[in-house]
Specification:
Family: Belongs to the UPF0337 (CsbD) family.
InterPro entries: CsbD, UPF0337_stress_rsp, YjbJ, YjbJ_sf
Pfam families: CsbD
Largest sheet: none
Protein name: UPF0337 protein bsl1473
Strand content: under 5%
Shape: globular
Order of helices and strands: HHHHH
Amino acid sequence: MDWNRIEGNWKQFKGSAKEKWAKLTDDDLKLIEGRREQLEGRLQERYGKAKDQVRQDVDDWLKTLH
């Protein structure tokens, strides 16, 4: 799955993101709007993880999407 597809179809994928990262609020998901850098930034804020770890978490999530 490439990120352009996620960005273009964010409404379809944000439910999956919410399931994976329950600490993301609905407002967070609206602000992210499918932008990877926004998602990673919000995840860093909500989970207190390092940037590299968040990037790996997002990569792992992408691998699970069909």
